[in-house]
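User: My instructor asked us to take a sequence, write out its structure as C-alpha cells, and then describe one feature of it. I'm not sure where to start. Here is the sequence I was given:
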Amino acid sequence: MESAPLDAREPAPADAEAAALGEIEESFFSVSIDMLCCLDFNGYFKRLNPAWEQTLGFTRKELMSRPFIEFVHPDDRERTLNQNALVRTGGKALSFENRYLCKDGSFKWFRWNAAPDPDSKVIYSVARDVTASKQADEERERLVGELQAALAEVRRLREILPICSYCRRIRDDDNHWDTVEGYISRHTSTMFSHGICPDCLGKFEAEAEAPKEGR
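Assistant: Let's start with the prediction itself. The C-alpha cells for your sequence are:
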C-alpha cells in the first residue's frame, strides 16, 4: 500500500497547536480595548492594534509613518525619551504616564507598561487611556481647594468680633453682650490683672486736682 503524499498528510499535533495559539494571540491583539504596540529601537511603531485608531483618531498607517515622539505632548517629551532609553537598555516602564495627541488636536493621558526584547530590538507595550480618571482627579483637587478656601474664609469671619461702639461690649454666638474681659476669659485661658495705664493715670490725677465747682 502506497503512503499518502507528504502535502496531503494531516498537520502534526504540534503544528496545529501552534497555529491555534497564533489565532488566539491574533484575536487578543485585535479585540483588546487597551492599546497594544511594538516599537522598534529607532522610535517607530512597527505594529498597533485597532484600539489606537479608536482612541486617537489617527489611522495606524499615520501613526507608524512618523517617530512616536511626535505624537507625545511637548511638555512630556523629555521624560518620555528618558523612559524609552531606560527600557531600551533593559529596564521596564511600570505605570508610566504621558499625553498623546489626538487627530482633533486634543490630548489624552496614557498609562504605560512596557518591556524590551533586546534580540529583536523591539519594545512591547500596553497603554491604557486614563484621561477620564485624570480629569476626575483634577476636578476633585479643584473642589478640595475651593472647600479649603471656604473654610479659611469661615475661620476669618469668625475672628471678626461684633463690638459695641459705645460700651465696648462684645456680642457672642448666643447674641449675649459681654465685656471684653468676660468674653476673652470664657473663650481662652487668658487671665486679667487690672491696673492703670500712664495716660489714664494722668487724666485721673488731673481730674482729682482740678478745683471743684462752687468751692
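For the description part of your assignment, you could build on this observation: The mean pLDDT is 84. Try explaining in your own words what that tells you about the chain.
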